[in-house]
Each structure stands twice: as structure tokens, then as C-alpha cells.
Amino acid sequence: MNSEATEERVLEAVRQRRELVNEALDEDIPLEEPERLYEATRYLLQAGGKRLRPTVTLLAAEALADVEPLSTDYRAFPTLDSREIDVMTAAASIEVIQSFTLIHDDIMDDDDLRRGVPAVHKEYDTETAILAGDTLYAKAFELMTHTGADPENGLEAVRMLATTCTQICEGQALDVEFERRTEVLPDEYLEMIELKTAVLYGAAAATAGVLMGAGEDVVEALYRYGIDSGCAFQIQDDVLDLTVPSEKLGKQRGSDLVENKETIITLHARQQGVDVDSLLDASGVEDVTEEAVEEAVAELDDAGSIDFAREKAHELTDRAKDHLEVLPDNEARSLLRDIADYLITRGY
Amino acid sequence: MNSEATEERVLEAVRQRRELVNEALDEDIPLEEPERLYEATRYLLQAGGKRLRPTVTLLAAEALADVEPLSTDYRAFPTLDSREIDVMTAAASIEVIQSFTLIHDDIMDDDDLRRGVPAVHKEYDTETAILAGDTLYAKAFELMTHTGADPENGLEAVRMLATTCTQICEGQALDVEFERRTEVLPDEYLEMIELKTAVLYGAAAATAGVLMGAGEDVVEALYRYGIDSGCAFQIQDDVLDLTVPSEKLGKQRGSDLVENKETIITLHARQQGVDVDSLLDASGVEDVTEEAVEEAVAELDDAGSIDFAREKAHELTDRAKDHLEVLPDNEARSLLRDIADYLITRGY
């Protein structure tokens, strides 16, 4: 299948599920009292987002149950032990965690914008944003206890969610630490993005297996699928930051370079002897010209660093798809494969 | 029993369990990588604290199991369904939640000191403090899945913890909202402290019942015990802020008045026609004199507002103790009664 057709198929599958996920989020995180707090908790959720992670959860459930995609009520979904569960609530829980991490990350990085709107701590204030994140955090765990799964499986899903959150914090701490370090090895970077970004994809996929009572090998394979495609996703983000025009990217092209943020690309370039610190001489994103970015990118390209990143992403994607072999061969599994491909072929 | 003897008995019971809780916290929240993150997560836990909440959990378990206090290994504790559970891990989970809320609250209130040492965001930085709180949050849920309880009970304990965290956030949001409001009713204030402070006492007590497989009525009674004594505890805090000398209090006496923080006392005084806003004319705690505080307190006292708070606290404590009647009549239950008394008789 060519990549354009794949992308179309993926976007359609994601769009269909996004609407259902959005409905679920609206139901599961209702506007309660105190109103300002709940407005802030719902604000970022309502600002959009592709809902890739919950889509992965829903597709993993469909693949495992071997049902026709979208043929089955996600709120009364058949498991492998013939019990019905609310897999949508689990998917919503994953998205709520993602939303909480974005709100707190934006405070820590003092980012102004998120999903095209002011970050929560800009729209409200830092206190409200901390609290909105904390509220979503609790709600995510609450939701995960309400899937109706076999209690042993439900408890295991909560445990996986908790471990995942710990790892996301560790990844964010490493990210901050790396900005202060003089040397970071590419493998250390990969470990950081696995923790910061990929584990939530891992949990998104594996949670479906856990709740449905799949065997350990299947759960592990789903988890690895999420980890590998999540890492590939992050590497592709790093590539896009350098290769996509600012208009399309929605932010300054090369912003990672301007902000001296190490990526797998700059770390590879350093190993090739490129003087990364002198690549872009700008004091901030307002300062930088397209020509300067162009030149910097050319130098990284000459060093083979962009290709290195692309190859790494491809390698991870191939591995991610291989993990899916344990699932029944069906349409949902095929869509999970396509999503892995899409994560590294998407243009922005 | 006279109140001095009660206090001694309580302090001894708390001290004995505190040592065990501290050991458990050290084991359950180990120093991992990234080191700076885990140092920050452990920093406040190691700074001290009475460990009242985990002590309540442990005593509730002992009362329910009807065992001699401290006679039974908390890590292999008998339940009512003849399974053994690690009730210490549940107690640690409650304390970890308390620690997380303090770290985030101190950021929100920009408080410099906590437990006599710099607040985490002062000792480290705001980013690290947000992340340390988030890490503890995840760890608390992780711990609660590791008690070895019947999975249905384990899941119920997680659900209670999640609901409790949501309520704590709601309480903190109300607290912030009240500072901006022109009028707050005493009942609204009581609802706020129930959410912000008392629900964690409720969860501390009830979690033992849930994990041990106690009936709904017992769980509910333990929960109400925690709620009522937790509210009494907070009201006593408000009284102490006005009535205890600064040296003993460890902070400026009357600081709530200086910071225009409404309490049940000021809200009652307003209803009596006292012009609370003019009671203390100081721009900050550095500014205030002992005489001015003395005069303000005398005015609140004349209005009957301090007595009103004391009576309210007594009423709540009596109710709290009544709830304990569902438990077997034993030494641990008697200590839980004493703790309720201690919470409103303690001098600081």
C-alpha cells in the first residue's frame, strides 16, 4: 500500500474514533463544582488533539476481540473471559493522563501555546493549572477503576498506569537534566524519550490486553508495539522540527536548535564532529532567519544525522509492526500497523 | 481519663507507628534514577511529620482485626477473609498523597517553609517540585495496588484514593476561590475543609476497612470517623493560629488574620457584625505586633467566635468517636478515640 493511501486510511480511522473519544471525555470529565477548576481541567481536552493514544487502545481491543472495527459498542465490549467491559473509559483515562502531563509540562517549560490556544497556565494561572493537572491525574485513575473488567485485571491496569506515570515523570526529569549536562549519549536520549513519550503509547496498547484478560505474551507484545512506535513518533518529531516549513509546523522551524534542545539528530552530529553549539547563532526564535535554519539543517544533513534519525525511526517502526504478529490477522491489526507507519510518515 | 494522660498515650502510639511508617516510606519510595528527582520526592518525607494519617490506617486495621496493638506484622496482616495483606503499604500510600499535596500547595501558596525546612520548590526549584509531587502521586497509586488484598477490595481502595485526591483538589480550588469572594458562609467553609483536609483522614481510616473486607457499614463508619475528626483538626488549627504564642506555633500568631484568610472564626465574627477586615492593620507578618494580635483576638473572643469554633470542634469530635462504636471494643479502638480527642486538645 502506498503511503498516501495509508495516511488516508489512518486519518479516517482516527477521526471516527476521535469523535467517540471526545464524547466519552465530555461525559467522563463533566463540568462540576468548583466551576473554574473544572473549566480549566476541560479546557485543554476541548482544545483538540488527534486522540492517537486512545485510538490505539480501542484498535488494540478490536484486534484482540477479532471484531469488525467500529462494529461493537466500546462501552460494552466483549473480553476474552466473556465478560463485557467499558474499554472506552480506559481509552479516555489514557488521554486524560496525556492531557495532565501537557498541562504540567507547559508550566515547567513556560510554553505559551498548546494546540493553538494559550496553555492552561496562561489562560488561567499557574495555581489553577497545577490543580487542573492534579485533578485530571486523579480522574484518570478513577476512570481506570470503572471499566468493569475482572478486578484482578482492573487492578493490573491501574498498576500499569501508575508505573507509566512514574516513568513519564522520570523522562521529564531526564529531559530537564540533559539540558544542563555537557554530554548526552544517543542511547541516553533514546531512554529519555522512551520514558517521557513512548511508555504512554505502550500503556495505551497494553491496557486493552490487560483489561480483556489476554495472556502475558500478548500484553507484552502490545506494550512493545507502543514503546517502539512511540519512540519512532518522537524521533519523527525531531526530524520534522528541522525539515518542515514554519507555516506548516505551526511554530518556528528549527526551534529545538534555537533552544539548544538536544535531539537524536544533534547528538549524532556531535559524534560526527559537528560543532552543534555554533550551528545557529540566535538568542531566541524571534531572532532566527529561514536562511540560517536552512544552513544549519544542511550541515546536519551533510553529517548524515538526519538520515540517521530517519533510519532509526524506520527500524523502530518495523519492530513495532513485528510485535503485532501475535494478534489475530484482521482489519484492526492492519490499522495498528498503518498507525505505526503514519507516525513516521506524517508531515506534521 | 484526663487530657494530659490521653495526650501522652496518643503521642506514644503515634511515635511507635511513626518509626515503622518511616521505615516503610524509605523502602517504598527508594532513591532511584534520576537521582535529583528522587531526592526531591524523598526530601519532604524525610523532613518529618507526625504520620497521623498512616497511624489512623494502622490503628483502624488493628481495631478491625481485634488484635493487640503492635502485636502483628503490618506487612502480613490478617484480614476478615483470612487472607494476609500489607496494610503498611496502604498506610504509606496515604502519607505519600499527603506529601504530594503539601509540595504542590506550597508552590501554589508560595510558602517558603514546611516542617521547619525550605519548601521543595525553594530547596530545589518549581519545576522539580511539580515533578516531585507528580512522582509521589503515581507512587501512591502504585503502592495501593500492592497490598495483596482481594483484587475487588484492592480496586475499591484505589477508587477511594482517586476520589479522595479529586476532592482534595476541589477543596484547594475552593480555598483559593474563597480568598477572592466577598462573602463566604460558615457552611461553605466547613464544606471546603472537609474536601481539602478531612477526606484524606476519611480515606486513611476507611482504606483499612476496604482492604480487609469489612462490611459497607463499617467502612462508612470509619470514613465518617476520619471526616469528622479531620474537620475538627482543621478548626483546631484555626483556633491555634489565634491563641498560641508565635514561638510555640513556629509561625506568626494571627497569620491567618494578617493574610486575610477566612476561617470558621472570622466567618462567625462577620455574622456577629464584627468588622473583620479592620481587625488587624498590617501589610504583612513582619509588620504585625503582638499587641495588635492580642487586641484582634480579644474582639473575636468577645463576639463568641473562638468559643463557637471550639464548640464546633468538640461536637465533631464527639460524632467522630460515636462512629467508632461499630468496631470491636479493644485497645486500638480506644486509641482511635484518643486520637480524635488529641486532634482538638493538642497545643500546636
The best one-word shape of chain A is globular
Q: Give the name of the CATH superfamily of chain A.
A: Farnesyl Diphosphate Synthase
Let me know the average pLDDT of chain A. 94
Q: Assign the CATH architecture of chain A.
A: Orthogonal Bundle
* Helix and strand sequence of chain A: HHHEEHEEHHHHHHHHHHH
Q: Which oligomerization state do the chains in this entry correspond to? A: homodimer
N-C termini distance of chain A: 21 Å
CATH class of chain A: Mainly Alpha
What count of helical segments of chain A does DSSP give? 15
Query: What Rg of chain A is obtained from the alpha carbons, in whole angstroms?
Result: 20 Å
**CATH-defined topology of chain A:** Farnesyl Diphosphate Synthase
Query: What are the segments of chain A in which pLDDT stays under 50 over at least 5 consecutive residues?
Result: none
Most extensive chain-chain interface: A-B, 43 and 43 residues
The main sheet of chain A orders its strands as: 1-2
Query: What is the domain tally of chain A?
Result: 1
Main sheet overview of chain A: 2 strands, antiparallel
Keywords (chains A, B): Magnesium, Metal-binding, Transferase
Cofactor (chains A, B): Mg(2+)
Organism (chains A, B): Halopelagius fulvigenes
EC number (chains A, B): 2.5.1.81
